[in-house]
Amino acid sequence: MTSLDSVEKVIIHKQLLYLREKALHELDQERTFTRDENPLKESLDFGDYGKATYDLDMGLLSQDAVRHVLRMIENALLKLEEGTYGTCDRCRRNIHPGRLEAIPYTPYCVECQALLEKDER
Ligand SMILES: [Zn+2]
Description:
Blueprint: H1 6-35, H2 46-58, H3 63-82, H4 97-102, H5 110-120
Helix pairs in contact: 1-3
Residues 88, 90-91, 93, 108-109, 111-112 line the site of zinc ion (ZN).
């Protein structure tokens, strides 16, 4: 069980909410692009064209990947509420702080993540 001080908790909470917004936004955009099939072929003025290209460029994750990340973010927010944030969902040991810093919504420690990825292959 990791004991986070309240300042850390607030920062992580903010970070997770920000990432959730970003993911939700990403899903919104995917929907828009699926609806009108070729958004870039519409007669856009130069500014709009640049914006659309930028958005597409930034949407590096597939919709499934974004949904997956969103689930992990929701899970991390729950764990933060419960006071179990920072522990691995699989082995219940503490996740390395450096890893949490890089991926604040990760549910697993490095060891478990590696094992799970090996299973998937
Ligand atoms: Zn683990």
